[in-house]
């Protein structure tokens, strides 16, 4: 009697060297077992139960990995019983300006009749239901040192995050995020992690300065990385610096943040972002990576620096 399995095909894998598949046809895949501990790092879609007939054993189509005792790969043939394309909304990452990720918690499913014809190229993942002979030997997972190390590292990081969130600095960051939401929720889009260790505040008014912060989750490197306007600060994660972060929030909201281009004897010097508190105290982030301009020749410049030069020196407007 046939046995039903489900094959996860990551989008880039299909576009690179995936095989065409149609409902009712027989296809062959090189399959690897999905390690419950390591699979989420490959693709979060494996956690979704989107099979038409409920949960079935799921395997990964892998044309690039190497065989090993821990993760053997086998060529498996079967009859295609279903094809589902999966797409995920693209969402910004809290605390990381310009960074987006796939929101795997909100998959969008697309029933397909065939795969590999070009019309399905916009999918992030594919799930193929495959009916294989009942006596088919399928790939299996053997517990490995890599799996154990991965599990221990993930568990340690989770514990460290929880401890830091419950500490004084963690509580102050949460209070600051709550205060920002109360004061500016109507004037800015606010994204935050559950523990408020990462927050993005993007004002709706054009020309206003956005504020992002992210606390490190690394052992022995407890700090807060802050992006305000075009400037970047790396602050120690202590009570005093959280108060500085609060001053940054107030300065951005009040329009007390400006960009400067320092003039040097041989051309343009460093770029600076200056945040000024209500009492006149200020903090400056300096970017020294700007290439010096000569009187001719060709030079290369990173796009963020080029954009800052194009915008020039200016003062951000208030969030009001």
From TrEMBL:
Pfam families: DUF6578 (PF20218). InterPro entries: DUF6578. This is Uncharacterized protein.
């Amino acid at each position: 009697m046939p046995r039903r399995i489900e094959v996860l095909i990551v989008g880039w894998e299909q576009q690179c060297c995936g095989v065409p598949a149609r409902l009712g046809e027989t296809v062959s895949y090189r399959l690897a077992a999905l390690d419950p501990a390591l699979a989420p790092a490959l693709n979060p879609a494996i956690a979704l139960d989107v099979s038409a007939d409920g949960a079935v054993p799921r395997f990964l189509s892998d044309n690039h990995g190497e065989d090993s005792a821990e993760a053997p790969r086998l060529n498996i043939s079967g009859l295609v019983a279903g094809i589902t394309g999966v797409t995920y909304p693209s969402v910004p990452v809290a605390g990381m300006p310009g960074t987006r990720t796939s929101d795997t918690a909100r998959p969008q499913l697309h029933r397909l009749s065939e795969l590999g014809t070009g019309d399905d190229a916009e999918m992030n993942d594919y799930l193929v239901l495959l009916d294989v002979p009942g006596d088919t030997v399928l790939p299996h997972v053997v517990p490995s040192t890599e799996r154990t190390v991965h599990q221990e590292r993930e568990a340690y990081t989770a514990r460290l995050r929880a401890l830091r969130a419950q500490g004084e600095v963690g509580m102050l960051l949460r209070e600051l995020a709550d205060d920002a939401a109360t004061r500016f929720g109507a004037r800015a889009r606010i994204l935050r992690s559950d523990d408020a260790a990462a927050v993005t505040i993007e004002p709706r008014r054009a020309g206003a300065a956005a504020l992002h912060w992210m606390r490190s989750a690394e052992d022995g490197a407890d700090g807060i990385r802050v992006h305000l306007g075009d400037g970047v600060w790396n602050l120690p994660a202590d009570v005093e610096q959280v108060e500085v972060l609060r001053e940054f929030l107030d300065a951005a909201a009040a329009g007390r943040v400006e960009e400067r281009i320092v003039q040097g004897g041989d051309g343009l010097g460093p770029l600076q972002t200056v945040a000024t508190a209500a009492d006149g105290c200020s903090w400056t982030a300096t970017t020294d990576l700007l290439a010096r301009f000569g009187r001719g020749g060709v030079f290369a410049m990173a796009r963020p620096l080029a954009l800052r030069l194009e915008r020039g020196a200016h003062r951000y407007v208030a969030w009001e």
